[in-house]
Amino acid sequence: MDHPEHKEITILKETILPGESKTINMEIAKLHTMTKLKIPIIVERSKIDGPTILLSAGLHGDEINGIEIVRQLIIQKINKPKIGTIICIPVINVFGFVNQTREFPDGRDLNRVFPGSKMGSLASRFAYHLLKEIIPQVDYVIDFHAGGASRFNAPQVRIAPDNAELKALADVFNAPFSLYSRNIPGTFRSSCDKLGVKMLLFEGGKSVNINEEITQEGINGAKRVLHHFGMLNGSKKVSTPKSKTIYIEKSGWVRAKFSGMFHGYTKIGQLVEKGQLLATISDPYGKVEHKVKAPNSGYIINVNDAPIVYQGDAVYHISKTLEN
């Protein structure tokens, strides 16, 4: 993508010049109490031209680990670029963040209403403004997420299959796992793709939780991407993992065949063998104990951390192909 000298960046009618730092508050709606909710957009521009990268989180308001990653990138001044521009939106769905919920106040999942509508629902209007005001300025996005409903995700990036540039970016980010995942209609990722903006979607940890290891994986991956584009401040060090990211083309969910108390015996990211004991599901009275075994060999990329499960609940996500 071309980067003309001194490319103009204007967001919500505010222009950010080369070398400038500016926080722009996005106000789409008020709470029912008439309280204003401001979504800070933190823009840092180098005097030297280069790519524009958006680091975003909190698309789902309860996925706090992603918010913590972007917060750390700001507080450590990693968001001050050597060249180009870094835009940070730590909390996109500030409504959900206030309430510790996934959805918008109108009950909609913001990540299913893109590209949105100027006159649609609250979530739809917000999606519309995000795409209209921010994305036209951006070349690349790293969007940080966490697992939902007590399900803990191994640190991973998700990319659409058959896209060489995204594959190269996933190599650079070098999370423990990289999953090929088709774009879902209505998602932020799908809309960015249609507008020619390349996105890495990072998943790690679980909702309403902050995990130090997951946070560090997200920070380190973002630094590697910034370093790749020559954007990382010279005072910041880049760590290189001992092994390359493991690509996963196919995976499947193991579901609970019984309701009961859930006792897991496997660690996130662990390689398991077919038939290996993963967990037991028991009644509270000491009479029944059901075994949960691995249906195939693969990596555990998601674990249900809930102490109680119901029949049909997804309890493990296991890769089906082993490819390095």
Question: Low-confidence spans: pLDDT under 50, at least 5 residues?
Answer: none
**Count of individual beta strands:** 19
> What coarse outline follows from CA principal-axis ratios?
globular
- The Cα radius of gyration reads 21 Å
Structural class: alpha+beta
In helices, the fraction of residues equals 10-25%
Distance between the termini: 29 Å
Mean pLDDT: 94
DSSP strand (E) fraction?
A: 25-35%
- What's the story with the biggest beta sheet? 13 strands, mixed
How many helices? The count is 6
What are the secondary-structure elements, in order, as H or E?
EEEEEHEHHEEHEHEHEEEEEEEEE
Model description:
By secondary structure, this protein is α+β, with helices and mostly antiparallel strands. 20% of the residues lie in helices and 31% in strands. It has six helices and 19 strands. The chain is globular and about 70 Å long.
Furnish the topology, listing elements before pairings:
Elements (H helix, E strand, L loop, with lengths): L8 E3 L2 E3 L4 E6 L12 E7 L6 E6 L6 H12 L9 E5 L4 H6 L22 H12 L6 E8 L3 E9 L4 H10 L3 E4 L7 H7 L3 E9 L5 H17 L17 E3 L2 E5 L4 E5 L6 E2 L4 E6 L6 E5 L4 E7 L3 E2 L4 E6 L5
Helix pairs in contact: 1-6
What labels describe this entry?
four-stranded antiparallel β-sheet, alpha+beta, 20% helix, 324 residues, 13-stranded mixed β-sheet, 31% strand, 6 helices
